[in-house]
Amino acid sequence: METGRSSEGILSEEMKQKRDEIIELLKTAYFMELETVINYVTNSTNPDGVRAQEIKESLEEDIQEELSHAQQFASRIKELYGVVPGSMDFEAEQGYLQPPQEQVDVVHVIKGVIEAETGAIEHYTRIVEETEGVDPVTQDMVIAILHDEQGHRRLFEGFLREYQAEGKA
Amino acid sequence: METGRSSEGILSEEMKQKRDEIIELLKTAYFMELETVINYVTNSTNPDGVRAQEIKESLEEDIQEELSHAQQFASRIKELYGVVPGSMDFEAEQGYLQPPQEQVDVVHVIKGVIEAETGAIEHYTRIVEETEGVDPVTQDMVIAILHDEQGHRRLFEGFLREYQAEGKA
Amino acid sequence: METGRSSEGILSEEMKQKRDEIIELLKTAYFMELETVINYVTNSTNPDGVRAQEIKESLEEDIQEELSHAQQFASRIKELYGVVPGSMDFEAEQGYLQPPQEQVDVVHVIKGVIEAETGAIEHYTRIVEETEGVDPVTQDMVIAILHDEQGHRRLFEGFLREYQAEGKA
Amino acid sequence: METGRSSEGILSEEMKQKRDEIIELLKTAYFMELETVINYVTNSTNPDGVRAQEIKESLEEDIQEELSHAQQFASRIKELYGVVPGSMDFEAEQGYLQPPQEQVDVVHVIKGVIEAETGAIEHYTRIVEETEGVDPVTQDMVIAILHDEQGHRRLFEGFLREYQAEGKA
Amino acid sequence: METGRSSEGILSEEMKQKRDEIIELLKTAYFMELETVINYVTNSTNPDGVRAQEIKESLEEDIQEELSHAQQFASRIKELYGVVPGSMDFEAEQGYLQPPQEQVDVVHVIKGVIEAETGAIEHYTRIVEETEGVDPVTQDMVIAILHDEQGHRRLFEGFLREYQAEGKA
Amino acid sequence: METGRSSEGILSEEMKQKRDEIIELLKTAYFMELETVINYVTNSTNPDGVRAQEIKESLEEDIQEELSHAQQFASRIKELYGVVPGSMDFEAEQGYLQPPQEQVDVVHVIKGVIEAETGAIEHYTRIVEETEGVDPVTQDMVIAILHDEQGHRRLFEGFLREYQAEGKA
Amino acid sequence: METGRSSEGILSEEMKQKRDEIIELLKTAYFMELETVINYVTNSTNPDGVRAQEIKESLEEDIQEELSHAQQFASRIKELYGVVPGSMDFEAEQGYLQPPQEQVDVVHVIKGVIEAETGAIEHYTRIVEETEGVDPVTQDMVIAILHDEQGHRRLFEGFLREYQAEGKA
Amino acid sequence: METGRSSEGILSEEMKQKRDEIIELLKTAYFMELETVINYVTNSTNPDGVRAQEIKESLEEDIQEELSHAQQFASRIKELYGVVPGSMDFEAEQGYLQPPQEQVDVVHVIKGVIEAETGAIEHYTRIVEETEGVDPVTQDMVIAILHDEQGHRRLFEGFLREYQAEGKA
Amino acid sequence: METGRSSEGILSEEMKQKRDEIIELLKTAYFMELETVINYVTNSTNPDGVRAQEIKESLEEDIQEELSHAQQFASRIKELYGVVPGSMDFEAEQGYLQPPQEQVDVVHVIKGVIEAETGAIEHYTRIVEETEGVDPVTQDMVIAILHDEQGHRRLFEGFLREYQAEGKA
Amino acid sequence: METGRSSEGILSEEMKQKRDEIIELLKTAYFMELETVINYVTNSTNPDGVRAQEIKESLEEDIQEELSHAQQFASRIKELYGVVPGSMDFEAEQGYLQPPQEQVDVVHVIKGVIEAETGAIEHYTRIVEETEGVDPVTQDMVIAILHDEQGHRRLFEGFLREYQAEGKA
Amino acid sequence: METGRSSEGILSEEMKQKRDEIIELLKTAYFMELETVINYVTNSTNPDGVRAQEIKESLEEDIQEELSHAQQFASRIKELYGVVPGSMDFEAEQGYLQPPQEQVDVVHVIKGVIEAETGAIEHYTRIVEETEGVDPVTQDMVIAILHDEQGHRRLFEGFLREYQAEGKA
Amino acid sequence: METGRSSEGILSEEMKQKRDEIIELLKTAYFMELETVINYVTNSTNPDGVRAQEIKESLEEDIQEELSHAQQFASRIKELYGVVPGSMDFEAEQGYLQPPQEQVDVVHVIKGVIEAETGAIEHYTRIVEETEGVDPVTQDMVIAILHDEQGHRRLFEGFLREYQAEGKA
Questions:
Q1: pTM
Q2: By 3-state DSSP, what share of chain D in percent is helix, strand and coil, each rounded to 5?
Q3: Helices (DSSP H) in chain A: which residue ranges?
Q4: What interhelical angle do I136-165 and F136-165 show, nearest 10?
Q5: Which of C103, F86, J148, K122 is 20 to 30 A distant from A98 in Cα terms?
């Protein structure tokens, strides 16, 4: 279906190789977001304490946002004529976001979130560079998601700082 | 915290062993729901075709429902003094729900969903039995989720039947 | 489709006879609710008078509730692999809920509603007993409906009492 | 109550005979709509299959519409000083809308709906004619309902056509 | 402005006389509705008692409806190139809707409302006849308003009947 | 009913005379608001022109506000044990708000509105003074209404100024 | 499909010729509304100035209304067994609604709208006459649309008058 | 009005020629969207059949989206100091989207939509290139619209595939 | 915290004694409202009969209003640097609002409500007097609450009157 | 009223004694919930500090939930033919929930809430046991409420833990 | 415009001097609120940390409230025939609300807010005194705003206390 | 916190200087928006006249938009590790937006708005250029805001034109 159009940018036949590269990057992003969903459900339930409450609520609100990111990545993969992978291809990588020994150890969770967001920012920055000039639609979509992740990390860095000031992190 | 109360049913100290068994069952249920979330995102994006459209929409609506099931399981684990596991403990098991070779092969998806729902029904039926008389709160919660899954499987069995009648499944 | 699963409770093959009994009970319940819908439309329109107004509004709100009960019964019949019957199988039984001679005879309507609710309570109590231990999903659904009917009859018994105190019933 | 007014059109005393004729027509319409409600609940639950899904949803949405038609007919009967009949006067007539032998036989349902709508259109067309010039309020109300039914039949005729084109009807 | 169009029905120049007749009828209707607004505000505040409560609420809801009728009449007068009259041309006529001696005399209010509605029904029936075949837009609008008034009178006749049955009216 | 309470402020028996004075002031206010309703319906329909549009919309929004003022006055009369008067007691006084000769004469309408609002402000200022120290509830309610009227007159004075600046008023 | 029914009014076989005439009239109406949509989008964007603002907003709100009229005409054509035409059959006719030389020339736009509405009123009046007694459903639908158009033209005639009074039109 | 500003990017005086080129491209886009509106209204009404239902609904939802695109193009033309053209400049070009011979021929409609979307994608891709580095605001707006169109075409390509798999296209 | 400010009215240090007096009055008011909440829940459930229905609904709506009054009193106590008392300081005083012997004895409930409201009116009138000129914020808040209670008592006095007229109270 | 029905479970005449026992348990539960309402209003207002903020909001949201529990208990008492008690029967028992000496002593409040919830859990667990097999409707209702209380206590135990970890509790 | 009316209270000609004094007070209040808006935007963004989160959200919600206060002051200035000043007359005065050295220094922000609220309370208390007996409308409006500010300061005093208890402030 | 990451674009350590430049530009933008907020509140209150009404409403709607722009700038400053400035750093610059001598001088306001928007457009165009290739997130955000400002200026240029055509500007 997608053959023989040369004036459609990234959807043109001659762009196939580039498109496949982008699809691979998007698949990685797709699983990053889904792993984040899992760990945010986990970490929005486990911690104890008043201060943890703030963080749990913050994570719980983010679950929907991250899930929606995953769905956007999936849709874009489809639009670029790729196939969205299934759960058997999934491999967990966020070792730093696993539940801590002690459920009141909120610092552990905060650092884990910062790690996760940093990984996402680096990966999405790369997608922005790779798509520059060849696929403005994907680029645009990823910039918006990147903005979300930057703001989110900034918030958790602020949380961390407070604990550092108190000598707890 | 939970020591020394003997009139609180499943939360009593002497019920600890039973409680741990239930927690294990709930952890399994927790990951079943999360894997379903992943595969429903995937399968609500991949398939092509008009008839697939009906199925894609049906799955997309279910994503929220299944996610909410997962969150209920997580909360209950917490309430029973357990720890909700993180993504590193996750192991994919729904081989039958991976994307098919051919994206118009809707029968593959339908059968996969029925398999998934059957697994869930069996597992939840067991939880209902295990909690009988000892943890009515968990039982009540699981019966409601079980109802959802039965209704959902019934719908997809109907979908399958049509294809069988047409000799396509 | 439903063959060969032995760990699924009421949906197992060996439970077929029990399932058929439950289906018959549900069919009766299905028509009871639909007849109630008819008579509530009728009786929420016919009566005259200020006091009747209160009763008419009460019945009008109930129409949606009773219709939804009917739809729940229908869905459950289907989930148990039964066939929901059509209008030709319907036989009216609520002789006591027919429009009275005199449209201001509200007591006639009140007594009719109490009769209808009593019939429903008896029938649903029986379903709760029949499904005990074999079909918790149906049981759970019927208990909730039973609660609605008990509350509704109680309200109309209160209405009747007032008229009795005034020597009009 | 309604005696002695000569300039009120259909509500005047000298119009009593005409009014009674209209009331009879409205009672028939009232039961037609209620029988449709019953059979749409039934037929929005029974059928199996992906394509059936479209039809089931279409019928399910119609239940509320048809119920509202019934309530309009009831109100109009009341306004014309008639008495809305109860369930004992109800006689099922839509033999063609009973559940088919085979639950995947969607054509059976489609034809049944067309039959039902055709009956309604004929009856309502007659009411429009009978009320011409004597009861514009009833006429107006029935024209609007007639419009709904025409549009609905047209939709199901389109469904039927597709099956005819495939040689299945 | 409105000269020289001959194919526009009631808005044509040669229809001017007929149009003026209709405008006069609409002005009367306009003031009828406004007087009703005044008296419904009054009578939805004055009466005392539990039973009066029902009637007060019924009238209060009607205030908006009657006001909206007045605004529709005003707009139609304008559309027919007439001038909507001001308060100096207003003359009260609903002597029967004035506050009674005794504020618990609900029957007085009920009868007043029936009188008012009867007057409106007669006047609007006349407008329907006058516009027959020459101004379908006005006719259509008035039929809808007529329907409201018929239903409203019917309701209050029912209220009256109850009091008559109790020998209080 | 209201006898024998001496510590209830304006509702005490010994305050009866004062209360009757306040009721008379409130009755006048009641009819002022209702006449405004009538004339705003009229003047929000009659005028022609783009600039008139602004004024028509402004008046149309005010209809609801003024009606609500009337309802507040009525309720307060009732609470003070007075009787709200009916339409036969109504006498039109806003000669300046009648429809002008020429429907594009917007200045006429603006001046009429200012006159009406000025009358209201003077009357309500008096009520505020009369109730000072004896009936804080009425005073409070009237101050809020007074604020509305002051703001409204200010707006129309601004409209007038523009026309004066253009030498048209 | 539509053959062999003799008691269904305009949908009967013997009414086919009449039905075709009505369909032709509806097709013309369909394109009139669509051309209006185009020109209202254009004219709600182009004009400059404060007074133009009022007109632009008025037109922008009308876009949805006119589009909905077009969709109603399309649906009715379909219900009468006709085929809705595509864009190739479209021919622009509203020369008077093209953008003026000078974008502050609001009078040009006002006159264009009046012309367009006048054309619509004449055409719809004819449809009302043609369907009299043979197709009450179409007639009813068109009368409602006719009312909208009459009210809209009346508004713009008022706008024009103001400019005429100022000697600018 | 727009003269003499040199630091405002595309709105600067020295960018006038470039701006005019962009305006021409936007005018073409404007009419493409409007023609799509017309043909989607047509094609969301004509087709028959269960499967067509899905496509009709899909098109009906798109009408609002395409209309909103047209309004965005119009606004941008205005912002760049151009004049939005009227209906007389409109020329239909989507021959492939005209109603087919046979109303159950859904494949015809699907192919027409793909053609239309392809045309749009090519034209908008060109606008994105032309505005690169000179008018980021227009570019941003068009990228977002381009994304919509790509997603939409992708959906209909999926529909087409299914029919191809069945050998019907 | 609150020391050393002399120009802040009631919050100034030199106003401490006056403030303490006001706080005591507010505490009494706080418990009056809470006792009312309890008794309105009780009395909105117990009574039987159609007429009782009106009163039960009236009380049920009031529960929220009275609870909100209690919360306003609590907040104001806090703002004046007082401490809100707990349940151990609560002493029931509304002997007249206890459930009657006979559940159809509605007059008992009506009289109880009037007693309760009278007590509130007297107490709040006193607060209004005490705060005159020294704490306008508290005064303003209490006047608004006083208005609610006056209106409420007036309604129940009307209910009582009806029963008196019938010789039942 | 409730005599002579033997097949209605808990509502049967021979179940009267059991029913009375359940009613007594429900009355105790009714007052427990109401006392909680009082103390939550108090404790959601008194405490000071950033961390207290979280707890105050948590309690404020719970007020509605606890009130609704009380209303459910009241309704069920009524449905079982009991009489809901009034405020004179109320005796405060939650000594641990009274306001502390120091308003920043949040730990005092947290412990009080845990005490209150523990009492509720024990009492409701007993009701669940008492109703086992004889009154499934009450049992079902109480299990749901029990679930709320367990979740709530769990939350506050988490709060407490944090303070314990910091050595403040 | 405002000349020659002597019975309109503060709007009378002889009250001009008093009115000018009030206007000056309102201008100061206007700028106080606007400066608060600026500093709340700033301080709801800058601070870091979990506890800061609570304060940031509290400030962010207040932005809308303070802006609305500013708009009320502006409207009242206008109603009293004054001119609302522009930004050139604005002078910053809240030195204590500038961003601190260290972004985790939350105590600095809390103290700044208390200072700002104290200034507002003093100024508004003065307006209440100045308007006593001469301009009840302004007084009423300012009392309501004063209430907001008192409640807000009280909340932040509580925040401060907690830090004092911990020896951090 | 932000050290040591080299693959994160603008957030990398080596981009610090560039980041500081961007922060300075954003601070200026932040105060531009806040000054606009102040002046729009002022100018949406002061002007008199019918035509002014349109402009006042337009400005009032814009207040929220401009405030939201300010909040976006503040958030972005924070995300880039800058500190948002407080009110002491604010310096008014929009001399052209101060209230005119004569409150009916609308042209003065229009010209002021155009000046303000032109300043914003120039400044934001510069930010877009400065961030090109180094900070796509900021660039994207500013382009969207730039679009708003361009559209807004265009509207007011149109307003101005009308007055110029009338020789008043």
A1: 0.91
A2: 75, 0, 25
A3: 16-43, 50-79, 106-131, 136-165
A4: 110
A5: J148
Other residues' Cβ atoms within 10 Å of the Cβ of residue H96: 16
H78 neighbors H22 (Cβ within 8 angstroms): no
Alpha carbon of F138 to those of F72, F75, F124, G122, L120: distances in Å? 10, 11, 11, 57, 51
Determine, for residues D54 and H53 on separate chains, whether the beta-carbon distance falls below 8 Å. yes
**Residue L154: closest C-alpha in chain H:** H79
* Six token digits for residue I16: 């401490």
**Chain J: touching chains (3 or more CB pairs < 8 Å):** A, B, C, I, K
Which of L5, L7, L79 faces A150 most closely, judged by CB atoms?
L79
Chain J residues with CB under 8 Å of K109 CB are none
Residue K86 identity (one-letter amino acid): G
- The number of angstroms, rounded, from the C-alpha of B109 to the middle of its chain's C-alpha atoms is 17
CA distance G13 to chain E (A): 28
Q: Answer whether J56's CB lies under 8 Å from J45's CB.
A: yes
Say which residue the tokens 């040009």 belong to.
G108
Q: How confident is the model at residue F19 (pLDDT cuts 50, 70, 90)?
A: very high
Q: Hey, what are E59's tokens?
A: 């009238």
- Residue J108 and residue J103: Cα distance in Å, rounded? 9
* Per-position DSSP letters for E12-54, written without gaps between them: SGGGHHHHHHHHHHHHHHHHHHHHHHHHHHHHTTS--SHHHHH
**Chain B residue nearest residue H55, CA to CA:** B50
Nearest to F105 by CA among E83, E28, L163: E83
pLDDT at A8: 78
Q: What is the CA radius of gyration of chain C?
A: 18
CB-CB neighbors (< 8 A) of G131 in chain E? none
What residue ranges of chain C have pLDDT lower than 70? 1-6
d(CA J51, CA A54): 10
Whether F121 has its CB under 8 Å from any CB of chain K: the answer is yes
- What φ, ψ does residue E157 adopt, rounded to 5°? -60, -40
Contacts of J67 in chain I (CB under 8 A): 37, 41, 63, 67
What phi, psi does I53 have (nearest 5°)? -50, -50
Which residues in chain H have Cβ-Cβ distances shorter than 8 Å to D161?
48-49, 103-104
Q: Report the alpha-carbon angle L120-L124-L126, nearest 5.
A: 125
- Which chains border H (3 or more CB–CB pairs < 8 Å)? A, B, D, G, L
Low-confidence residues in chain H, pLDDT < 50: 1-5
Spatial separation of the C-alpha atoms in residues C146 and K104, rounded to whole Å: 58
Low-confidence ranges of chain A (pLDDT < 70): 1-6
List the structure tokens of L50: 């019918």
Locate tokens 């908006």: which residue? Answer: E64
Q: Cα angle at H101 between H99 and H107, to 5 degrees? A: 70
pLDDT digits (tens, 9 = 90+) for K86-129: 999 999 999 999 999 888 899 999 999 999 999 999 999 999 99
> H/E/C letters for each residue in chain G?
CCCCCCCCHHHCHHHHHHHHHHHHHHHHHHHHHHHHHHHHHHHCCCCCCHHHHHHHHHHHHHHHHHHHHHHHHHHHHHHCCCCCCCHHHCCCCCHHHCCCCCCCCHHHHHHHHHHHHHHHHHHHHHHHHHHCCCCHHHHHHHHHHHHHHHHHHHHHHHHHHHHHHCCCC
CA distance D37 to C38: 10
The one-letter amino acid at D3: T
Q: Which of H32, H42, H59 is nearest to G27 (CA)?
A: H42
Q: Which of D159, D162, D167, D129 is nearest to D146 (CA)?
A: D129
